[in-house]
Protein backbone atom coordinates (compact mmCIF):
# COMPACT_ATOMS: atom_id res chain seq x y z
CA UNK A 1 0.00 0.00 0.00
CA UNK A 2 1.16 3.50 -0.79
CA UNK A 3 2.46 6.03 1.65
CA UNK A 4 -0.68 8.16 1.34
CA UNK A 5 -3.34 7.07 3.81
CA UNK A 6 -5.92 9.79 3.28
CA UNK A 7 -6.27 11.45 -0.07
CA UNK A 8 -8.96 14.02 -0.76
CA UNK A 9 -9.71 15.85 -4.02
CA UNK A 10 -12.29 18.64 -4.31
CA UNK A 11 -14.44 17.08 -1.62
CA UNK A 12 -17.68 19.05 -1.23
CA UNK A 13 -20.74 18.79 0.95
CA UNK A 14 -23.79 20.93 0.46
CA UNK A 15 -26.89 21.08 2.63
CA UNK A 16 -29.41 22.78 0.36
CA UNK A 17 -27.95 26.18 -0.49
CA UNK A 18 -25.36 25.99 2.22
CA UNK A 19 -21.92 24.71 1.24
CA UNK A 20 -20.50 23.29 4.45
CA UNK A 21 -17.35 21.95 2.86
CA UNK A 22 -16.12 23.64 -0.30
CA UNK A 23 -13.80 21.65 -2.59
CA UNK A 24 -11.12 20.69 -0.11
CA UNK A 25 -8.05 18.73 -1.26
CA UNK A 26 -5.17 17.30 0.74
CA UNK A 27 -3.09 14.17 1.37
CA UNK A 28 -2.17 12.65 4.69
CA UNK A 29 0.84 10.35 4.90
CA UNK A 30 1.40 7.24 6.93
CA UNK A 31 2.49 7.87 10.51
CA UNK A 32 1.73 11.56 10.27
CA UNK A 33 -0.04 13.58 12.94
CA UNK A 34 -2.33 15.72 10.86
CA UNK A 35 -3.87 18.67 12.66
CA UNK A 36 -7.23 19.70 11.28
CA UNK A 37 -7.99 23.18 12.55
CA UNK A 38 -10.80 25.63 12.06
CA UNK A 39 -13.15 27.82 14.01
CA UNK A 40 -16.54 26.43 15.01
CA UNK A 41 -18.75 26.23 11.96
CA UNK A 42 -15.83 26.21 9.53
CA UNK A 43 -16.83 22.76 8.29
CA UNK A 44 -14.36 20.57 10.18
CA UNK A 45 -16.89 18.19 11.58
CA UNK A 46 -18.67 17.77 8.27
CA UNK A 47 -15.40 17.06 6.50
CA UNK A 48 -14.45 14.55 9.15
CA UNK A 49 -17.82 12.83 8.95
CA UNK A 50 -17.34 12.36 5.22
CA UNK A 51 -13.92 10.82 5.80
CA UNK A 52 -15.37 8.46 8.41
CA UNK A 53 -18.06 7.23 6.05
CA UNK A 54 -20.87 8.85 8.06
CA UNK A 55 -21.81 11.40 5.47
CA UNK A 56 -21.99 11.09 1.69
CA UNK A 57 -20.07 13.77 -0.23
CA UNK A 58 -22.03 15.94 -2.66
CA UNK A 59 -19.12 15.96 -5.08
CA UNK A 60 -15.39 15.34 -5.25
CA UNK A 61 -13.53 12.21 -4.30
CA UNK A 62 -11.49 10.81 -1.49
CA UNK A 63 -9.87 7.65 -0.22
CA UNK A 64 -9.22 6.64 3.36
CA UNK A 65 -6.90 3.71 4.03
CA UNK A 66 -7.17 2.93 0.33
CA UNK A 67 -10.97 2.79 0.24
CA UNK A 68 -13.28 5.13 -1.60
CA UNK A 69 -15.39 7.39 0.65
CA UNK A 70 -18.24 7.20 -1.85
CA UNK A 71 -18.52 3.49 -2.37
CA UNK A 72 -16.61 1.69 0.36
CA UNK A 73 -17.69 3.30 3.61
CA UNK A 74 -18.16 -0.13 5.21
CA UNK A 75 -14.51 -0.98 4.53
CA UNK A 76 -13.39 2.42 5.77
CA UNK A 77 -15.21 1.96 9.06
CA UNK A 78 -13.39 -1.31 9.54
CA UNK A 79 -9.97 0.31 9.11
CA UNK A 80 -10.31 3.50 11.12
CA UNK A 81 -10.52 4.34 14.79
CA UNK A 82 -12.59 7.19 16.15
CA UNK A 83 -12.70 9.12 19.36
CA UNK A 84 -14.95 12.09 19.81
CA UNK A 85 -14.82 15.25 21.86
CA UNK A 86 -17.59 13.85 23.94
CA UNK A 87 -16.64 10.96 26.10
CA UNK A 88 -17.15 7.84 24.09
CA UNK A 89 -17.01 4.94 26.52
CA UNK A 90 -19.88 3.51 28.52
CA UNK A 91 -19.91 4.82 32.08
CA UNK A 92 -21.98 2.00 33.47
CA UNK A 93 -19.68 -0.70 32.14
CA UNK A 94 -16.33 -1.69 33.61
CA UNK A 95 -13.02 -1.00 31.91
CA UNK A 96 -12.81 -4.61 30.80
CA UNK A 97 -16.40 -4.70 29.53
CA UNK A 98 -15.76 -1.61 27.43
CA UNK A 99 -12.67 -3.20 25.94
CA UNK A 100 -14.54 -6.41 25.25
CA UNK A 101 -17.41 -4.55 23.60
CA UNK A 102 -15.26 -2.61 21.18
CA UNK A 103 -13.04 -5.60 20.48
CA UNK A 104 -16.23 -7.49 19.65
CA UNK A 105 -17.49 -4.72 17.40
CA UNK A 106 -14.28 -4.88 15.37
CA UNK A 107 -14.44 -8.65 15.18
CA UNK A 108 -11.42 -9.51 17.33
CA UNK A 109 -11.28 -13.11 18.51
CA UNK A 110 -11.43 -14.01 22.20
CA UNK A 111 -7.70 -14.70 22.50
CA UNK A 112 -6.82 -11.56 20.56
CA UNK A 113 -9.09 -9.52 22.81
CA UNK A 114 -7.54 -10.98 25.94
CA UNK A 115 -4.02 -10.38 24.62
CA UNK A 116 -4.56 -6.81 23.55
CA UNK A 117 -6.56 -5.93 26.64
CA UNK A 118 -3.75 -7.12 28.91
CA UNK A 119 -1.18 -5.27 26.83
CA UNK A 120 -3.30 -2.12 26.78
CA UNK A 121 -3.95 -2.13 30.51
CA UNK A 122 -0.25 -2.72 31.22
CA UNK A 123 0.75 0.16 29.01
CA UNK A 124 -1.65 2.50 30.79
CA UNK A 125 -0.87 1.09 34.24
CA UNK A 126 -4.54 0.29 34.49
CA UNK A 127 -4.31 -3.41 35.29
CA UNK A 128 -5.70 -2.92 38.78
CA UNK A 129 -8.69 -1.01 37.38
CA UNK A 130 -9.77 -3.78 35.06
CA UNK A 131 -13.08 -4.33 36.84
CA UNK A 132 -13.71 -0.74 37.86
CA UNK A 133 -16.77 0.99 36.46
CA UNK A 134 -15.64 3.63 34.00
CA UNK A 135 -17.76 6.32 35.67
CA UNK A 136 -15.56 6.18 38.76
CA UNK A 137 -12.36 6.96 36.84
CA UNK A 138 -11.00 10.52 36.65
CA UNK A 139 -11.62 12.31 33.34
CA UNK A 140 -8.01 12.23 32.24
CA UNK A 141 -7.86 8.46 32.68
CA UNK A 142 -11.08 8.06 30.79
CA UNK A 143 -9.73 9.99 27.82
CA UNK A 144 -6.56 7.93 27.76
CA UNK A 145 -8.54 4.73 28.00
CA UNK A 146 -10.85 5.97 25.30
CA UNK A 147 -7.92 6.60 22.97
CA UNK A 148 -6.39 3.22 23.72
CA UNK A 149 -9.68 1.49 23.00
CA UNK A 150 -10.19 3.41 19.77
CA UNK A 151 -6.98 1.82 18.50
CA UNK A 152 -7.60 -1.69 19.84
CA UNK A 153 -8.21 -3.08 16.34
CA UNK A 154 -4.92 -1.52 15.11
CA UNK A 155 -6.55 0.85 12.62
CA UNK A 156 -4.50 2.58 9.93
CA UNK A 157 -5.97 5.98 10.76
CA UNK A 158 -7.41 7.31 14.00
CA UNK A 159 -9.76 10.28 13.88
CA UNK A 160 -9.65 12.32 17.07
CA UNK A 161 -12.35 14.96 17.35
CA UNK A 162 -11.15 17.47 19.95
CA UNK A 163 -9.91 14.64 22.15
CA UNK A 164 -8.53 16.81 24.95
CA UNK A 165 -11.49 19.08 25.59
CA UNK A 166 -11.81 19.81 29.29
CA UNK A 167 -8.69 17.91 30.29
CA UNK A 168 -6.01 19.43 32.55
CA UNK A 169 -2.63 20.41 31.02
CA UNK A 170 -0.68 17.56 32.62
CA UNK A 171 -3.07 14.94 31.31
CA UNK A 172 -3.12 16.65 27.96
CA UNK A 173 0.63 16.33 27.80
CA UNK A 174 0.39 12.64 28.66
CA UNK A 175 -2.34 12.22 26.12
CA UNK A 176 -0.12 13.68 23.40
CA UNK A 177 2.65 11.30 24.40
CA UNK A 178 0.24 8.49 23.65
CA UNK A 179 -0.52 10.04 20.30
CA UNK A 180 3.17 10.26 19.46
CA UNK A 181 3.67 6.67 20.48
CA UNK A 182 0.83 5.54 18.21
CA UNK A 183 2.19 7.61 15.33
CA UNK A 184 5.64 6.13 15.82
CA UNK A 185 4.02 2.74 15.53
CA UNK A 186 2.82 3.68 12.04
CA UNK A 187 -0.74 4.74 12.89
CA UNK A 188 -1.83 7.89 11.13
CA UNK A 189 -3.45 10.47 13.39
CA UNK A 190 -6.07 12.90 12.14
CA UNK A 191 -6.84 15.30 14.95
CA UNK A 192 -9.01 18.37 15.39
CA UNK A 193 -8.33 20.72 18.27
CA UNK A 194 -8.99 24.19 19.57
CA UNK A 195 -5.75 24.34 21.54
CA UNK A 196 -3.12 26.09 19.47
CA UNK A 197 -0.26 24.71 21.56
CA UNK A 198 -1.45 21.29 20.46
CA UNK A 199 -1.31 22.45 16.86
CA UNK A 200 2.42 22.92 17.38
CA UNK A 201 2.76 19.22 18.18
CA UNK A 202 1.36 18.17 14.80
CA UNK A 203 3.52 17.12 11.87
CA UNK A 204 1.36 19.18 9.53
CA UNK A 205 -1.59 21.43 10.07
CA UNK A 206 -4.48 22.46 7.85
CA UNK A 207 -6.66 25.42 8.72
CA UNK A 208 -10.22 25.57 7.47
CA UNK A 209 -12.10 28.84 7.05
CA UNK A 210 -15.60 29.06 5.61
CA UNK A 211 -15.56 25.49 4.35
CA UNK A 212 -12.24 25.83 2.53
CA UNK A 213 -8.75 24.77 3.47
CA UNK A 214 -6.91 28.12 3.59
CA UNK A 215 -3.52 26.93 4.78
CA UNK A 216 -1.72 23.60 4.94
CA UNK A 217 1.89 23.03 5.98
CA UNK A 218 4.13 22.20 8.91
CA UNK A 219 3.65 24.49 11.89
CA UNK A 220 7.13 25.94 11.40
CA UNK A 221 6.58 26.88 7.78
CA UNK A 222 3.10 28.23 8.44
CA UNK A 223 4.53 30.55 11.06
CA UNK A 224 7.16 31.63 8.59
CA UNK A 225 4.60 32.16 5.84
CA UNK A 226 2.40 34.36 7.99
CA UNK A 227 5.35 35.96 9.79
CA UNK A 228 3.82 34.87 13.05
CA UNK A 229 5.32 34.02 16.44
CA UNK A 230 2.94 31.18 17.19
CA UNK A 231 0.25 29.01 15.64
CA UNK A 232 -2.23 31.01 17.62
CA UNK A 233 -1.31 34.09 15.61
CA UNK A 234 -1.47 32.19 12.34
CA UNK A 235 -4.88 30.92 13.22
CA UNK A 236 -6.21 34.30 14.22
CA UNK A 237 -4.89 35.95 11.07
CA UNK A 238 -6.77 33.42 8.97
CA UNK A 239 -9.89 33.24 11.07
CA UNK A 240 -10.30 37.00 11.02
CA UNK A 241 -11.32 36.80 7.38
CA UNK A 242 -14.13 34.35 8.11
CA UNK A 243 -17.57 35.23 6.75
CA UNK A 244 -19.43 32.59 8.73
CA UNK A 245 -19.90 32.90 12.43
CA UNK A 246 -20.88 30.24 14.90
CA UNK B 1 -20.00 -10.39 12.45
CA UNK B 2 -22.17 -12.63 14.55
CA UNK B 3 -19.74 -12.07 17.35
CA UNK B 4 -20.22 -8.33 17.41
CA UNK B 5 -23.98 -8.73 17.53
CA UNK B 6 -23.54 -10.94 20.56
CA UNK B 7 -21.31 -8.44 22.29
CA UNK B 8 -23.94 -5.77 21.67
CA UNK B 9 -26.73 -7.76 23.22
CA UNK B 10 -24.45 -8.47 26.18
CA UNK B 11 -23.68 -4.78 26.52
CA UNK B 12 -27.34 -3.78 26.45
CA UNK B 13 -28.20 -6.40 29.04
CA UNK B 14 -25.44 -5.08 31.27
CA UNK B 15 -26.82 -1.55 30.96
CA UNK B 16 -30.19 -2.78 32.13
CA UNK B 17 -28.87 -5.00 34.90
CA UNK B 18 -26.61 -2.26 36.24
CA UNK B 19 -29.52 0.11 36.47
CA UNK B 20 -31.11 -1.71 39.38
CA UNK B 21 -33.65 0.96 40.19
CA UNK B 22 -35.19 1.04 36.73
CA UNK B 23 -35.12 -2.72 36.63
CA UNK B 24 -36.99 -2.91 39.91
CA UNK B 25 -39.57 -0.40 38.75
CA UNK B 26 -40.17 -2.31 35.54
CA UNK B 27 -40.65 -5.56 37.42
CA UNK B 28 -42.78 -4.09 40.18
CA UNK B 29 -45.09 -1.85 38.16
CA UNK B 30 -47.03 -4.74 36.64
CA UNK B 31 -47.40 -6.43 40.00
CA UNK B 32 -48.52 -3.17 41.56
CA UNK B 33 -50.98 -2.34 38.84
CA UNK B 34 -52.41 -5.83 38.89
CA UNK B 35 -52.99 -5.79 42.62
CA UNK B 36 -54.27 -2.24 42.57
CA UNK B 37 -56.73 -2.74 39.77
CA UNK B 38 -57.50 -6.26 40.78
CA UNK B 39 -58.40 -5.53 44.37
CA UNK B 40 -58.33 -1.92 45.40
CA UNK B 41 -59.67 -0.05 42.41
CA UNK B 42 -62.81 -1.64 41.16
CA UNK B 43 -66.15 -0.61 39.87
CA UNK B 44 -67.76 -3.34 41.89
CA UNK B 45 -69.86 -2.52 44.88
CA UNK B 46 -68.42 -4.00 48.00
CA UNK B 47 -69.22 -3.75 51.69
CA UNK B 48 -71.93 -1.18 51.44
CA UNK B 49 -73.43 -0.47 54.83
CA UNK B 50 -77.15 -0.85 54.78
CA UNK B 51 -79.41 0.33 57.57
CA UNK B 52 -82.99 -0.82 57.80
CA UNK B 53 -86.08 1.07 58.92
CA UNK B 54 -88.98 -1.14 59.85
CA UNK B 55 -91.72 -0.25 62.28
CA UNK B 56 -92.55 -3.89 62.85
CA UNK B 57 -90.03 -6.62 62.53
CA UNK B 58 -92.30 -9.13 60.95
CA UNK B 59 -91.22 -12.50 59.53
CA UNK B 60 -91.10 -11.02 56.04
CA UNK B 61 -88.80 -8.20 57.14
CA UNK B 62 -86.55 -10.55 59.06
CA UNK B 63 -86.33 -12.79 56.04
CA UNK B 64 -85.35 -9.89 53.80
CA UNK B 65 -82.74 -8.57 56.23
CA UNK B 66 -81.34 -12.07 56.56
CA UNK B 67 -80.81 -12.21 52.79
CA UNK B 68 -79.19 -8.79 52.85
CA UNK B 69 -76.69 -9.57 55.52
CA UNK B 70 -75.73 -12.86 53.96
CA UNK B 71 -74.88 -11.14 50.72
CA UNK B 72 -71.16 -10.32 50.41
CA UNK B 73 -71.76 -6.93 48.86
CA UNK B 74 -73.68 -5.51 51.80
CA UNK B 75 -73.11 -5.19 55.48
CA UNK B 76 -76.23 -4.99 57.60
CA UNK B 77 -75.85 -2.03 59.88
CA UNK B 78 -78.78 -2.50 62.24
CA UNK B 79 -82.30 -1.18 62.53
CA UNK B 80 -82.69 2.57 62.79
CA UNK B 81 -85.60 4.88 63.25
CA UNK B 82 -87.14 7.14 60.60
CA UNK B 83 -85.45 10.23 62.12
CA UNK B 84 -82.00 8.76 61.93
CA UNK B 85 -82.02 8.17 58.16
CA UNK B 86 -80.63 11.56 57.27
CA UNK B 87 -77.90 11.37 59.90
CA UNK B 88 -76.83 7.88 58.86
CA UNK B 89 -76.53 8.81 55.19
CA UNK B 90 -74.77 12.11 55.81
CA UNK B 91 -72.26 10.70 58.24
CA UNK B 92 -71.54 7.80 55.92
CA UNK B 93 -72.62 5.25 58.47
CA UNK B 94 -74.89 3.87 55.82
CA UNK B 95 -74.58 3.93 52.05
CA UNK B 96 -78.17 2.91 51.63
CA UNK B 97 -81.22 2.71 53.79
CA UNK B 98 -84.03 0.24 53.20
CA UNK B 99 -87.40 1.34 54.49
CA UNK B 100 -90.05 -1.35 54.88
CA UNK B 101 -93.70 -0.34 54.89
CA UNK B 102 -95.44 -0.97 58.19
CA UNK B 103 -97.80 -3.49 56.65
CA UNK B 104 -95.05 -5.08 54.60
CA UNK B 105 -96.13 -8.71 55.02
CA UNK B 106 -99.70 -8.02 54.03
CA UNK B 107 -98.70 -6.03 50.97
CA UNK B 108 -96.38 -8.78 49.83
CA UNK B 109 -99.28 -11.16 49.89
CA UNK B 110 -101.40 -8.69 47.96
CA UNK B 111 -98.71 -8.14 45.37
CA UNK B 112 -98.27 -11.85 44.89
CA UNK B 113 -101.99 -12.16 44.47
CA UNK B 114 -101.89 -9.26 42.04
CA UNK B 115 -104.20 -7.09 44.04
CA UNK B 116 -102.03 -4.11 44.99
CA UNK B 117 -99.18 -2.48 43.06
CA UNK B 118 -98.14 0.21 45.48
CA UNK B 119 -94.45 0.32 46.46
CA UNK B 120 -93.76 -1.60 49.56
CA UNK B 121 -90.06 -0.94 50.02
CA UNK B 122 -88.32 2.39 49.78
CA UNK B 123 -84.61 2.54 48.94
CA UNK B 124 -82.77 5.67 50.01
CA UNK B 125 -79.30 5.63 48.49
CA UNK B 126 -76.31 7.92 48.88
CA UNK B 127 -75.75 8.89 45.25
CA UNK B 128 -72.70 11.09 45.73
CA UNK B 129 -70.87 8.35 43.85
CA UNK B 130 -73.11 7.64 40.90
CA UNK B 131 -71.57 4.29 39.98
CA UNK B 132 -71.75 2.90 43.46
CA UNK B 133 -75.31 4.12 43.90
CA UNK B 134 -76.45 2.63 40.61
CA UNK B 135 -74.96 -0.77 41.28
CA UNK B 136 -76.07 -0.79 44.90
CA UNK B 137 -79.62 -0.02 43.84
CA UNK B 138 -79.74 -2.77 41.28
CA UNK B 139 -78.23 -5.31 43.68
CA UNK B 140 -80.61 -4.34 46.45
CA UNK B 141 -83.56 -4.58 44.12
CA UNK B 142 -82.49 -8.02 43.03
CA UNK B 143 -82.07 -9.26 46.56
CA UNK B 144 -85.27 -7.74 47.88
CA UNK B 145 -87.33 -8.60 44.84
CA UNK B 146 -86.79 -12.23 45.64
CA UNK B 147 -88.49 -11.74 48.98
CA UNK B 148 -91.19 -9.48 47.73
CA UNK B 149 -92.50 -11.71 45.03
CA UNK B 150 -91.45 -15.24 44.59
CA UNK B 151 -92.10 -15.12 40.89
CA UNK B 152 -89.14 -13.60 38.98
CA UNK B 153 -89.93 -11.28 36.16
CA UNK B 154 -86.59 -11.54 34.37
CA UNK B 155 -84.09 -14.24 34.34
CA UNK B 156 -80.73 -12.62 33.67
CA UNK B 157 -77.60 -14.59 33.04
CA UNK B 158 -74.26 -12.83 33.00
CA UNK B 159 -72.13 -14.78 30.57
CA UNK B 160 -68.29 -15.03 30.68
CA UNK B 161 -68.00 -12.99 33.84
CA UNK B 162 -70.94 -14.12 35.94
CA UNK B 163 -69.74 -12.38 39.07
CA UNK B 164 -69.17 -9.17 37.09
CA UNK B 165 -65.67 -8.94 38.47
CA UNK B 166 -63.91 -5.83 37.27
CA UNK B 167 -60.49 -7.46 37.55
CA UNK B 168 -61.41 -9.39 34.42
CA UNK B 169 -61.91 -6.15 32.66
CA UNK B 170 -58.72 -4.53 33.85
CA UNK B 171 -56.19 -7.28 33.18
CA UNK B 172 -56.25 -6.89 29.39
CA UNK B 173 -56.09 -3.12 29.81
CA UNK B 174 -53.10 -3.32 32.11
CA UNK B 175 -51.35 -5.58 29.63
CA UNK B 176 -51.98 -3.07 26.85
CA UNK B 177 -50.48 -0.34 28.98
CA UNK B 178 -47.52 -2.10 30.56
CA UNK B 179 -45.93 -3.30 27.35
CA UNK B 180 -46.00 0.15 25.82
CA UNK B 181 -44.40 1.38 29.02
CA UNK B 182 -41.65 -1.23 29.15
CA UNK B 183 -40.95 -1.62 25.45
CA UNK B 184 -41.63 1.72 23.87
CA UNK B 185 -40.60 4.02 26.68
CA UNK B 186 -37.52 2.13 27.80
CA UNK B 187 -36.17 1.40 24.32
CA UNK B 188 -36.65 4.94 23.14
CA UNK B 189 -35.01 6.37 26.23
CA UNK B 190 -32.09 3.98 25.95
CA UNK B 191 -31.48 4.80 22.27
CA UNK B 192 -31.79 8.53 22.85
CA UNK B 193 -29.47 8.29 25.85
CA UNK B 194 -26.69 7.06 23.56
CA UNK B 195 -27.35 9.93 21.20
CA UNK B 196 -27.26 12.37 24.09
CA UNK B 197 -24.10 11.03 25.70
CA UNK B 198 -22.30 10.70 22.38
CA UNK B 199 -21.68 6.98 22.33
CA UNK B 200 -24.06 6.54 19.40
CA UNK B 201 -21.60 8.48 17.25
CA UNK B 202 -18.82 6.05 18.10
CA UNK B 203 -21.05 3.11 17.29
CA UNK B 204 -22.01 4.62 13.96
CA UNK B 205 -18.35 5.09 13.00
CA UNK B 206 -17.76 1.42 13.76
CA UNK B 207 -18.39 -1.26 11.13
CA UNK B 208 -21.58 -2.37 12.90
CA UNK B 209 -24.67 -1.86 10.77
CA UNK B 210 -27.06 0.63 12.41
CA UNK B 211 -29.91 -1.84 12.10
CA UNK B 212 -27.92 -4.27 14.21
CA UNK B 213 -27.36 -1.67 16.91
CA UNK B 214 -31.09 -1.14 17.07
CA UNK B 215 -32.06 -4.78 17.16
CA UNK B 216 -29.41 -5.52 19.76
CA UNK B 217 -31.07 -2.87 21.88
CA UNK B 218 -34.48 -4.37 21.44
CA UNK B 219 -33.58 -7.92 22.42
CA UNK B 220 -32.99 -7.40 26.17
CA UNK B 221 -36.13 -5.28 26.47
CA UNK B 222 -38.02 -7.94 24.62
CA UNK B 223 -36.73 -10.50 27.10
CA UNK B 224 -37.76 -8.35 30.06
CA UNK B 225 -41.18 -7.86 28.56
CA UNK B 226 -41.57 -11.60 28.21
CA UNK B 227 -40.80 -12.02 31.90
CA UNK B 228 -43.33 -9.29 32.68
CA UNK B 229 -45.84 -11.00 30.42
CA UNK B 230 -45.45 -14.31 32.24
CA UNK B 231 -45.73 -12.52 35.59
CA UNK B 232 -48.94 -10.79 34.56
CA UNK B 233 -50.46 -13.98 33.22
CA UNK B 234 -49.61 -15.90 36.39
CA UNK B 235 -51.01 -13.14 38.59
CA UNK B 236 -54.12 -12.90 36.47
CA UNK B 237 -54.72 -16.62 36.57
CA UNK B 238 -53.89 -17.48 40.15
CA UNK B 239 -54.35 -14.25 42.08
CA UNK B 240 -57.31 -12.75 40.29
CA UNK B 241 -58.75 -15.95 38.92
CA UNK B 242 -59.14 -14.73 35.33
CA UNK B 243 -60.24 -17.80 33.35
CA UNK B 244 -57.85 -17.57 30.35
CA UNK B 245 -60.25 -19.88 28.64
CA UNK B 246 -59.08 -18.93 25.16
CA UNK B 247 -55.84 -20.79 25.66
CA UNK B 248 -52.63 -19.48 27.17
CA UNK B 249 -50.67 -20.13 23.99
CA UNK B 250 -52.90 -17.90 21.92
CA UNK B 251 -52.81 -15.03 24.41
CA UNK B 252 -49.05 -15.39 24.58
CA UNK B 253 -48.57 -15.28 20.81
CA UNK B 254 -50.84 -12.29 20.48
CA UNK B 255 -48.89 -10.53 23.24
CA UNK B 256 -45.58 -11.25 21.49
CA UNK B 257 -46.98 -9.53 18.44
CA UNK B 258 -47.96 -6.56 20.60
CA UNK B 259 -44.46 -6.51 22.11
CA UNK B 260 -42.97 -6.25 18.63
CA UNK B 261 -45.31 -3.38 17.91
CA UNK B 262 -44.39 -1.56 21.11
CA UNK B 263 -40.68 -1.96 20.36
CA UNK B 264 -41.17 -0.45 16.91
CA UNK B 265 -43.06 2.42 18.50
CA UNK B 266 -40.09 2.95 20.82
CA UNK B 267 -37.78 3.08 17.83
CA UNK B 268 -40.04 5.61 16.15
CA UNK B 269 -40.01 7.81 19.24
CA UNK B 270 -36.22 7.59 19.40
CA UNK B 271 -35.90 8.91 15.86
CA UNK B 272 -38.06 11.91 16.74
CA UNK B 273 -36.73 12.77 20.19
CA UNK B 274 -33.27 14.22 20.71
CA UNK B 275 -33.21 14.22 24.50
CA UNK B 276 -34.15 11.57 27.01
CA UNK B 277 -36.65 13.92 28.55
CA UNK B 278 -38.37 14.43 25.22
CA UNK B 279 -38.46 10.68 24.65
CA UNK B 280 -40.09 10.21 28.03
CA UNK B 281 -42.63 12.92 27.44
CA UNK B 282 -43.56 11.66 24.00
CA UNK B 283 -43.96 8.15 25.34
CA UNK B 284 -46.01 9.32 28.26
CA UNK B 285 -48.24 11.90 26.61
CA UNK B 286 -48.57 10.72 23.06
CA UNK B 287 -48.80 7.05 23.81
CA UNK B 288 -50.09 6.55 27.34
CA UNK B 289 -52.95 9.01 27.21
CA UNK B 290 -54.66 7.47 24.18
CA UNK B 291 -54.24 4.07 25.73
CA UNK B 292 -55.89 5.16 28.94
CA UNK B 293 -58.65 7.11 27.24
CA UNK B 294 -59.23 5.62 23.83
CA UNK B 295 -58.41 1.95 24.07
CA UNK B 296 -61.46 0.78 25.92
CA UNK B 297 -59.33 0.12 28.98
CA UNK B 298 -61.21 2.52 31.24
CA UNK B 299 -64.13 3.71 29.13
CA UNK B 300 -66.00 1.56 26.67
CA UNK B 301 -65.30 2.70 23.12
CA UNK B 302 -69.04 2.64 22.37
CA UNK B 303 -69.49 5.40 24.96
CA UNK B 304 -67.03 7.76 23.31
CA UNK B 305 -68.15 10.61 21.07
CA UNK B 306 -68.22 9.58 17.42
CA UNK B 307 -65.03 11.53 16.65
CA UNK B 308 -63.02 9.75 19.30
CA UNK B 309 -64.44 6.42 18.26
CA UNK B 310 -62.88 6.99 14.85
CA UNK B 311 -59.60 8.16 16.41
CA UNK B 312 -59.48 5.10 18.63
CA UNK B 313 -59.01 2.96 15.52
CA UNK B 314 -55.41 4.07 15.22
CA UNK B 315 -54.58 3.28 18.84
CA UNK B 316 -52.85 -0.12 18.67
CA UNK B 317 -53.73 -0.91 22.27
CA UNK B 318 -57.39 -0.82 21.37
CA UNK B 319 -57.07 -3.82 19.09
CA UNK B 320 -54.82 -5.67 21.45
CA UNK B 321 -56.94 -5.12 24.54
CA UNK B 322 -60.07 -6.06 22.65
CA UNK B 323 -58.51 -9.32 21.44
CA UNK B 324 -57.06 -10.21 24.84
CA UNK B 325 -60.42 -9.59 26.46
CA UNK B 326 -62.11 -11.89 24.01
CA UNK B 327 -59.54 -14.60 24.53
CA UNK B 328 -59.12 -14.31 28.27
CA UNK B 329 -62.70 -13.88 29.29
CA UNK B 330 -64.93 -14.97 26.46
CA UNK B 331 -62.67 -17.89 25.75
CA UNK B 332 -62.34 -17.35 22.02
CA UNK B 333 -59.38 -19.00 20.29
CA UNK B 334 -56.69 -16.96 18.52
CA UNK B 335 -58.29 -17.63 15.13
CA UNK B 336 -61.43 -15.82 16.21
CA UNK B 337 -59.55 -12.54 16.66
CA UNK B 338 -57.75 -12.79 13.33
CA UNK B 339 -58.95 -9.34 12.35
CA UNK B 340 -57.22 -7.78 15.36
CA UNK B 341 -54.07 -9.76 14.57
CA UNK B 342 -53.99 -8.57 10.98
CA UNK B 343 -54.44 -4.95 12.08
CA UNK B 344 -51.68 -5.28 14.67
CA UNK B 345 -49.31 -6.90 12.17
CA UNK B 346 -50.06 -4.17 9.66
CA UNK B 347 -49.39 -1.47 12.24
CA UNK B 348 -46.12 -3.11 13.29
CA UNK B 349 -44.86 -3.34 9.72
CA UNK B 350 -45.85 0.26 9.02
CA UNK B 351 -44.29 1.69 12.18
CA UNK B 352 -41.14 -0.39 11.82
CA UNK B 353 -40.53 0.59 8.21
CA UNK B 354 -41.16 4.27 8.86
CA UNK B 355 -38.84 4.34 11.85
CA UNK B 356 -36.08 2.34 10.17
CA UNK B 357 -36.25 4.69 7.23
CA UNK B 358 -36.14 7.73 9.51
CA UNK B 359 -33.28 6.21 11.45
CA UNK B 360 -31.24 5.67 8.28
CA UNK B 361 -32.06 9.12 6.94
CA UNK B 362 -30.72 10.69 10.12
CA UNK B 363 -27.34 9.15 9.42
CA UNK B 364 -26.94 10.97 6.14
Task: Quickly list its features.
heterodimer; A: 246 residues; alpha/beta; Rossmann fold; 6-stranded mixed β-sheet; 9 helices; globular; B: 364 residues; abc type-2 transporter like fold; 2 domains; 4-stranded mixed β-sheet; 4 strands; 6% strand; elongated
Plain-language structure description:
The complex is a heterodimer of chains A (246) and B (364). Chain A is 37% helix and 26% strand. Chain A contains nine helices and ten strands. Chain A has helices spanning 44-51, 73-79, 95-105, 110-124, 139-150, 169-184, 196-201, 219-225, 231-240, and strands at 4-15, 18-29, 33-38, 59-64, 67-68, 80-83, 157-161, 188-192, 204-209, 212-217. Chain A has a six-stranded mixed β-sheet, with helices on both faces. In chain A, strands 2-1-4-5 form a four-stranded antiparallel β-sheet, with helices on one face. The model of chain A has no long low-confidence stretch (mean pLDDT 89). In chain B, strands 2-1-3-4 form a four-stranded mixed β-sheet, with helices on both faces. In chain B, 36% of the residues are buried. Chain B contains 14 helices and four strands. The mean pLDDT of chain B is 82. Chain B is an alpha/beta fold and 364 residues long. Chain B folds into two domains: 7-41 and 165-363, no CATH class; 48-148, 3-Layer(aba) Sandwich (abc type-2 transporter like fold), CATH 3.40.1710.10. Chain B is elongated, with a radius of gyration of 27 Å. Chain B has helices spanning 2-18, 20-40, 59-70, 84-90, 104-113, 130-148, 166-197, 199-205, 210-239, 248-272, 276-294, 306-311, 316-330, 338-363; strands spanning 48-54, 74-79, 96-100, 121-125. Chain A binds chain B through residues 52-56, 74, 77-78, 80, 82-93, 97, 100-107, 150, 159, and chain B through 1, 3-4, 6-8, 10-11, 14-15, 18-19, 197-199, 201-208, 363-364.
